[in-house]
Amino acid sequence: MPHLALSWARRAALIATLASMPLLVSARRDATAATVARFHLELTRAEPGKSDTVAVSPAEIKLWFSESVRPKAVSVRLTSPQRKAVVLGAITVDTVPKSPAVVTVPATLEAGTYWVAWHALASDGHPGAGSFSFTIRAASEK
Q1: 95: left (phi over 0), alpha (psi -120 to 50) or beta
Q2: Which stretch of 25-34, 48-57, 106-115, 124-133 has the lowest confidence by average pLDDT?
Q3: N or C end of the chain, less CB within 10 A?
């Protein structure tokens, strides 16, 4: 009958190998998540910007993305401090790479915090979505 007992050295090596397996799985999962995130469209800049406080109502909202977007595949929603949708004008996207998507704000907005939610499709078909807020300062605040 063969001897099945492991030496202390082999037991220690086996325990060390098994103990490190969750780290290997975790590292692979993190690397995969980073790769997937790299291929999704992201907002790189906005005017008004994330968490900005502005003195006057913006006439337009500009969004810059990490890659070129399909002009017909960009949507922007603006929500008022009263949580009501604000009517926006047309969205324009220049065909020049890295140009912003621009949406007009036809009405003067009152003071308060507004939420911008966007969805877009990159030229290569990868989607992106996000949101941010900006605040219009009351005229009495300085």
Answers
A1: alpha
A2: 25-34
A3: N
Q: Which single residue is written with the structure tokens 């990490």? A: 66
What Cα–Cα distance (Å) separates residue 135 from each residue in 40, 108, 112?
Answer: 28, 13, 5
What are the domain boundaries of the chain?
Answer: 7-38, 43-136
d(CA 48, CA 134): 7
Contact 67, 40 (CB under 8 A): no
Give the pairing type, strands 127-136 and 53-54: parallel
Is 2.60.40.1220 the CATH classification of the domain at 43-136? yes
Number of neighbouring beta carbons within 10 Å of residue 61: 23
